[in-house]
Amino acid sequence: MGGCARTADDAGLSGETWQVVALHTQPDTPGELPTDAAGKASLRFSGSSMNATTGCAPLRAQVETSPERLKLVDAEVSSAGDCFGGSRYVHDTLTSLLVPGAEFEIHMLNEREATLTALADTVDRPSIRVMAL
Fold it and tell me: Could you name the domain of life of the organism this protein comes from (predicted)?
C-alpha cells in the first residue's frame, strides 16, 4: 500500500468532533479561548476530509495523516461576515493556521484530548488543543 494517502483514521482523529479548547500562538500569551468564543470552534475528521467551524464560518479541507502527522492538502473557508469579538479572534487564528500545505504533529494526550502542533522553523511553534465531544 506504499504511496497511498493516509486518512484521519490513521491518527485516531476520525469519527469524533474535536472542540477547539486552546490556541497557542505566542509564548507570552495564554492559549485559552476568549469566554465569548468558548465551545464555538470545532474540527471533525472523516477519512481524508476535515469539516470545521471557526466560530464564525465553516472551513473544509482535504487532509493526509499518519499516526503522528496531519497535512492540509487544500482548505476553503467561508466568509466570516460581521463576526466580532472573541469568535473573530478564534476565526482569524484558525484560518491563519489551517491553510493549504500546513502540517501538524499530532500528540494524542489521551483518547479524548490532542494537541496539533504546527511544523515550523520556530522554537515556539503554534498549536491547537482539542478535546473530543
Answer: Bacteria
